[in-house]
Specification:
The chain has helices spanning about 25-40, 55-65, 80-90, 105-110, 115-135, 150-160, 180-190, 210-220, 240-250, 265-280, 300-305, 335-345, 350-370, 375-385, 430-440, 485-505, and strands spanning about 5, 5-10, 45, 70-75, 95-100, 135-140, 165-170, 200-205, 225-230, 260, 395-400, 410-415, 420-425, 445-455, 465-470, 475-485. The longest helix has 18 residues, at about 115-135. It is α/β, with parallel strands linked by helices. Helix 1 (about 25-40) packs antiparallel against helix 10 (about 265-280) and helix 5 (about 115-135) packs parallel to helix 6. About 40% of the residues lie in helices and about 20% in strands. InterPro entries: 2-IPM_HCS-like (IPR050073), 2-isopropylmalate_synth_dimer (IPR013709), AIPM/Hcit_synth_CS (IPR002034), Aldolase_TIM (IPR013785), LeuA/HCS_post-cat (IPR054691), LeuA_allosteric_dom_sf (IPR036230), LeuA_bact_synth (IPR005671), PYR_CT (IPR000891).
Length: about 525
């Protein structure tokens, strides 16, 4: 039996980026977009073009580069937003404008300060304006999960008449439960006269831990697009997790009348890439992509799996990309092989200078590790991508002493604006001492809101990846560092965060866009 297509709409680069501290630069967004394209994601929401110049440029770069997925930009129901989105999407092989307006009584009264009639009028005008700029228009009823059904029917019918091809029904605040949300989708499909002229989509938040359950219930009720993110990344408690949606539908084909076109073997590599770039580690017991997702501790379980895998595993680890992404390169590998593997991974290294730096650091890493994995390469590039550019702070020397019963000390030499400076400091531990030594030189007056260490691969020779999140004056930046030495990785991460502050680059988070 032929199954209907379930459209997978990934919003990691837009809604996912609205997680505090998860801001990505253009090159990082492009790397993730290419990973999503390899996964065969149907629609990639690349950003909110009017939010900032950086967001506009990232959407444009992705639209100009990715050819196999539809590229989407979010836009409020305003002409200037829609025009900016259309401009960013001009080079797309397939582009979509996603415009939205709140429809719940609480949002209309307290946020929009509009009457229901005014909301419908504005929604229709926005959709018509978008259709004059692009063929593919999606309209979202923000906070649909708390909207009155009669009004939802009215505005959805009007938006479809105005030219919207996709209607998105978001549970913006994660308020719904599966049976209730399914009833909403089913009622809209039954009551809206022109419902057959649009694809109905859902975008669920995870405030009550029900985003995936609500999304799947909606699919069974007739929704044919699910908006989701890698690792469930997103505002507050996050969004519906792409990997869980895809594998639930694929594993339970006996219950779902749909299937996706996703290449599931790219799921784990994409998960690790997003985790590396954002600095948000994946919890070990996370479904599908967690380190323990296919691990069996119980002797009974181990015995059953050894005798017949299906006794305790409902899907294959290899099918979602575990154990399939090892690269066999070592210290004798050449530059051409190294470049080829980076290209396969969708890692852009535009200049020869960037390639030379990355290749040298690969050689240094290969001297320390017996095997180099794709995850190591992703971290290596994240750690060195800006090394060919001018950085204000660069690590030169780090020397740490730590002995039981004695206070740890760190001596550090960093290059600041071309001048080497040295400092020594003591601390509660070697990392604390290192950070205090750095601060004594730079005096940034930042506060640290996150320090996270994650092993990139298994084994005692694994690179450690450190994420440092700093705050100052309401601005939040993440710094990343990777090294087989955790203390060195920590210093690199701290300096990387300081360089982000020094660069002055920032992105305005459009909180109103939490659809």
């Amino acid at each position: 039996m032929n199954k209907e297509r379930l459209i997978i709409f990934d919003t990691t680069l837009r809604d996912g980026e609205q997680s505090p501290g998860a801001t990505m630069d253009q090159d990082e967004k492009l790397r993730i977009a290419k990973a999503l394209e390899r996964m065969r994601v149907d629609v990639i929401e690349a950003g909110f073009a009017i939010a900032s110049q950086g967001d506009f440029e990232a959407v444009k770069a992705i639209a100009d580069t990715v050819r196999e997925s539809t590229i989407c930009s979010l836009a409020r129901a305003k002409a200037e937003d829609i025009d900016r989105a259309a401009e960013a999407l001009a080079g797309a092989e397939s582009g979509r404008i996603h415009t939205f307006l709140a429809t719940s009584p609480i949002h209309m009264e307290h946020k929009l300060r509009m009457t229901p009639d005014q909301v419908v009028e504005n929604a229709v005008a926005a959709v018509k304006h978008a259709r004059n700029r692009i063929d593919d228009v999606e309209f979202s009823c923000e906070d649909a999960g708390r909207s009155e059904l009669d009004f939802l029917c009215r505005i959805v019918e009007a938006a479809i008449d105005a030219g919207a091809r996709t209607i998105n029904i978001p549970d913006t605040v994660g308020y719904n439960i599966p049976e209730q949300f399914a009833d909403t989708i089913r009622s809209l499909l039954e009551r809206v006269p022109n419902a057959d002229k649009a694809v109905f989509s859902v975008h669920c938040h995870n405030d009550l831990g029900l985003a995936v359950a609500n999304s799947l219930a909606a699919v069974q009720a007739g929704a044919r697009q699910v908006e989701c993110t890698i690792n469930g990344l997103g505002e507050r408690a996050g969004n519906a997790s792409l990997e869980e949606i895809v594998m639930a539908v694929r594993t339970r084909q006996d219950l779902f009348p749909v299937d996706t076109g996703i290449n599931a073997r790219e799921i784990v590599p994409a998960s690790k890439l997003v985790s590396t770039i954002t600095g948000f580690p994946v919890q070990p017991n996370k479904a599908i992509v967690g380190a323990n997702a296919f691990a069996h501790e119980s002797g009974i379980h181990q015995d059953g799996v050894l005798k017949h895998r299906e006794t305790y595993e409902i899907m294959s680890a290899e099918d979602v990309g575990w154990h399939t992404n090892r690269m066999v390169l070592g210290k004798h590998s050449g530059r051409a092989a190294f470049r080829a593997r980076l290209e396969e991974l969708g890692i852009p290294l535009g200049s020869d200078a960037s390639l030379n730096i990355a290749f040298q650091r690969f050689k240094d890493l290969a001297d320390k590790k017996h095997e180099v994995f794709d995850e190591d390469l992703q971290a290596l590039v994240s750690d060195t991508r800006q090394a060919a550019e001018q950085e204000r702070y660069q690590l030169v020397v780090l020397e740490v002493t730590s002995c039981t019963g004695e206070t740890p000390k760190a001596r550090i030499v960093i290059n600041v604006d071309g001048e080497e400076r040295e400092a020594t400091a003591a601390g509660a531990g070697p990392v604390d001492a290192t950070f205090k030594a750095i601060e004594s030189l730079v005096q940034s007056n930042c506060s640290m809101s996150l320090y996270s260490v994650n092993a990139i691969t298994s084994g005692t020779d694994s690179q450690g990846e450190v994420t440092v999140r700093l705050e100052k004056g309401g601005r939040i930046v993440n710094g990343h560092g990777a090294d087989t030495d955790i203390i060195s990785a920590s210093a690199k991460a701290y300096l990387n965060a300081l360089n982000h502050f020094a660069s002055g680059s920032q992105r305005a988070h459009p909180q109103a866009a939490d659809v």
